[in-house]
Write a structure and sequence with these properties.
This protein is α/β, with parallel strands linked by helices. The chain is about 35% helix and about 25% strand. It binds adenosine-5'-triphosphate (ATP) and magnesium ion (MG).
Length: about 260
C-alpha cells in the first residue's frame, strides 16, 4: 500500500491531434502525500485542467512517469479511487438530483440498486442536499448544483478528489461557505484533494500546500508550503496576518507567472 497519492517525475503532458503534438506542460515533478489538501493556482491556459486530466486517466501523458496510489492512473480509475468535479457543472438536466448522484454507479456498469439508498442519503446529508433528491438541476441554485456535482464525485468514496475550479461561478459568501464544508469533509474522510482555483484567497485558505504554475511554457513555478502558518488540521483565519501576507506573496508570484 502506497502512502503517496500522486507521484510524477519529468512528466510531459500535451495533446495529440493526428501527427501534431502540442506540449502543454513539461518537466513536472510532484509528490503528493496521501491525505494532503493541495491547491493549484496559475494563469488561464497554463495547463491546470490538463494536469488533473492526467491524474484522472482522462489523458495519457506524452512522457515521463506518473503513479496514482502507487499504481498507474488507469488502475486507480478502474478501481474508482479518483473522483472528479469538473470546471463546468456537468449535471444531466433530464435527470433528478438523486439520479445524477447515482450516475457513476450506473455508468460504471453496476446496477443502480447495488448502491444502497442509505449511501445516497448519507452523501446528500453531508452536502446539505437532503430533501432535494427529486428536483431537477434547473430547479436548483448554482451553489446547490455544485454540491450535487461534489456529492456525485464522493459517492464511490474516492481516495483522491480532483476538483477543477468547482466554486468559480459562485458568489463570495456561498463560496466561503462551501470552502468550509469542503474542509470538514476533507477532515472527516482523510481524502487527498487536488483543487484548482483562480482565487489566490481560496488557494491559500484551503491548501496545505499551494502549487503556482506558469504559462508559455506551462510548468510548475513554485510549491509553497503553508503548514507552518496553519494549525495541524489546516485551520486558519482568513484575516490572520500571516495568511494575508501569504496571499500578497502568491499574488506577486502569479503576476510574474502570467
Ligand atoms: N483537447 C485539447 N486539444 C488541444 N489542446 C488543448 C485541449 N484542451 C486544452 N488544450 C490546450 O492546452 C492548454 C492548457 O489548457 P487547460 O485547459 O489545461 O488550461 P487551464 O490552466 O485549466 O486554463 P483555465 O484556467 O482557463 O481553465 C491551453 O493552451 C489549451 O488551449
Ligand atoms: Mg481549466
Amino acid at each position: 500500500m502506497s502512502d503517496t497519492a500522486v507521484e510524477a517525475q519529468r512528466l510531459e503532458i500535451g495533446y495529440r491531434n493526428g501527427r501534431d503534438v502540442t506540449t502543454v506542460l513539461s518537466d513536472v515533478d510532484l509528490t503528493v502525500p496521501q491525505g494532503e489538501f493541495l491547491t493549484i493556482l496559475g494563469p488561464s491556459g497554463c495547463g491546470k485542467s490538463t494536469l488533473l486530466r492526467v491524474v484522472a486517466n482522462l489523458l495519457d501523458p506524452l512522457g515521463g512517469q506518473i503513479t496514482v496510489l502507487g499504481n498507474t492512473p488507469e488502475a486507480a480509475r478502474r478501481a474508482r479511487k479518483t473522483g472528479f468535479v469538473f470546471q463546468d457543472a456537468t449535471l444531466l438536466p433530464w435527470r433528478t438530483v438523486g439520479q445524477n448522484i447515482r450516475l457513476p454507479a450506473v455508468v460504471g456498469g453496476r446496477q443502480a440498486r447495488a448502491l444502497p439508498d442509505t449511501r445516497i442519503a448519507e452523501v446528500m446529508a453531508l452536502l446539505g442536499l437532503s430533501g432535494l433528491e427529486d428536483r431537477y438541476p434547473s430547479q436548483l441554485s448554482g451553489g446547490q448544483r455544485q454540491r450535487v456535482a461534489i456529492a456525485r464525485a464522493l459517492i464511490d468514496e474516492p481516495e483522491i478528489l480532483l476538483m477543477d475550479e468547482p466554486f468559480g461561478a459562485l458568489d463570495e459568501i456561498t463560496r466561503d461557505r462551501l470552502n468550509d464544508e469542503l474542509l470538514s469533509i476533507w477532515r472527516e474522510t482523510g481524502m487527498t484533494i487536488l483543487f484548482v482555483t483562480h482565487s489566490i484567497e481560496e488557494a491559500v485558505y484551503l491548501g496545505q500546500r499551494v502549487i503556482v504554475m506558469a504559462a508559455n511554457p506551462g510548468r510548475i513555478l513554485n510549491i509553497h508550503d503553508l503548514r507552518p502558518v496553519k494549525s495541524d488540521d489546516n485551520h486558519c483565519q482568513r484575516d490572520n496576518a500571516a495568511i494575508v501576507s501569504e496571499i500578497a506573496a502568491q499574488r506577486q508570484l502569479l503576476a510574474e507567472a502570467s
